[in-house]
Amino acid sequence: MDQLRGQDLKKAFSAATGCLEEYRDTVNALNVFPVPDGDTGTNMLLTMRSAVQSAAEGCPDGRDHSVATVSSALAQGAFFGARGNSGVILSQFFKGFSDALAGKEDLAAGDLALAFKLASDGAYKSVGNPVEGTMLTVIRMASEAVEGAFQGSEGDVLGLWETAYLASLDALERTPQQLPVLREAGVVDAGGLGIVVLIGGALRSLSDGGSSLVDLSALSRFQRAADSNDGRLIKPEYLAATVEQEWGFCTQFIISSVGELDLDLDRVRSHFQETARSTTIVGDGRNVRVHIHVEDPAPALSYAESLGALSEIKIENMDSQNRNFAAGAPRDQPDQPDHPDQAEGAALALALLPVAQGEGLAHLFRDSGCADVIDGGQTMNPSVQQILDAARGTGAKDVIVLPNNGNVVSAAEQAAAAEPFIHVVPTKNVPQGVAALLAFNPEGPWQENVDAMAAALSEVASLEVAKAVRGTDIGGVAVTEGQYIGLLEGLMVTAEDSPEKALRSALDRAGLNAGAIVTIYLGADTSVSDAELVAAELESGFPGIQVDLIDGGQPHHQYLASVE
Fold it and tell me: Which of 121, 129, 214, 238 has the most crowded Cβ, counting Cβ within 10 A?
C-alpha cells in the first residue's frame, strides 16, 4: 500500500476506537491502585470517541476528504474531548498527526514517519515532567521504529504501520523494567496498552484484517497480570500534562506574528521548555499562546517581544514572598489588573466552578456561593469540552475551576490553555476543594484568589475511604478484595474490615490533637449512626476537638474527610 486517503485514515481510527472499547476493561484492570475508577481505558476511549465524532461531522461519508482535513478534525475532537491525564496526552498525539499532514491530500510513507515523530514530540511536550515506562515511551518507540524503517527507502505505508505496532508492543513489554512501580506490581503500563490497541486496531482496519501480525486477542494476557498487584502505589497524577507550581510567577500572553513572517511554534516551545516550568504552549504560525511559570517574567516577555506583538499579558504572583519583587518589575511588565474596568473601580465578575459527585457535595458548593457544579469525579471525569461549556455558562469574566480529583486536573488545565478567562487551582480531592472554597473571596481579583486558594491546600490533610475492588499489597499495606482502604494524602495507609475502622485508622495517622477541626463527608450508602459513633470516639479521645458530619452523597467513597 503506497498511500492512504482521508477516508482510509478516518475508517482506521474509527475501527481502532472500537478495539479500544473492546479492551477498555483490560486497560482499566492494569491500574495498580485498587479503588474503583474509570481511569486510563475509559478516559482514552472517551477521548477517541470525541475525535471520531469530530471527524464524522467534519468529514461526512460520500465525499473524498484529504488526510489533512481528516487529521485536523480528529485532533480538534480529541483536544476538546480529552479526559484525564491519558486523554490529554492522546490529544497531543493527534495534534502531531495533524501538524505533519497539514496540506496533504494523501498520506505516503514519509508522511507517516513524520506523523509519528510529531505525535511523539507532542505527547512528550504535553507533560511537564515526562516519566519513562508510560504511554509516552510506547509512542516514542513506535515513532523511532517507523523512522528507522523508512530511512533509505521509499517505504510502504502498511509495512510502516506494522513496524509501529510491533515496536509499540515490544515497548509495552519493557515498561516494567523502566518504571519500578510496574515491576513491583507485575503489570505493564495501562496507557501503553491503550496505545498498542489503537495502533493495532488501525492496522487491522488498513489491512482489511489481512495482517498476520495483528492478533489483538493475544493482548488479553496482560489482563491476567493485573491480578498480581503487589507493588507500591501509582499516584493518579504521575502522568499529569501540567503541574501547577507554588513559586514564582504564572505568566501568560499571546505572541502574534507581524507582517508576512510566521512564528515557529516548535522554536517557541523549545525555548520555554528550557527556560521555564509548567509550560503549555499552543497555537499556529500566526498566534501562539504561552502559559509558563518563571521566577522572573521579564526575560520571557523580552524574548517574546523579539518574535512579534504581545497581547493579553497576565502575570500572577504564585508566592506571596515574591510580592516585593513584583512591585519592582520593569515598567513594561507591571503587575497590573487584567481588566480595565477593574482599574476604574468596577467590580470584577468572578465565578467559582468546582467538579463534584454526589447531591450533598453539589449542594454544599452551590450553597457556599459557587456559580455551578460540574458533575463528575471518580469514574466519571468531565471532558475538556464540558469544563469549557460550564465555564462559559457562568457568564463570568473570570472563572476559577476546582478539579477536586487528580485525574481531572489535566483536563481543567487544558481548558484553561484554550480560554484565558479560565484559571485552575489544582485541587486533587474534595477536602482540598472545600479548603480552597473557604479561602475564596468573590470581591477580590482572580489572581489574589488563586494565590490564597492554592496556599490553603497545604493547610488541610485529606483522607479517603473506599472499598477495594481487588486484592493487592501497596507500600507494605496488604488488602484483600472487599476490604476498606484508608488513604491519607493519596497514599494507602490502612486496610480494614469496615469503613469506620479504616476512617479511624487513617485519622489517627493524620496527627489529631485537641485543637483539630475534622470534617467528615458521608457517602451515598453510609450510615449516619455509624459516622456518629466515630465522631463520638474522636470527641472522647481528644477533648476540645471539633468534628463536623456532612452528607456528601458521593458514590464511590464511603467517607471523605479533612483535618485542619
Answer: 214
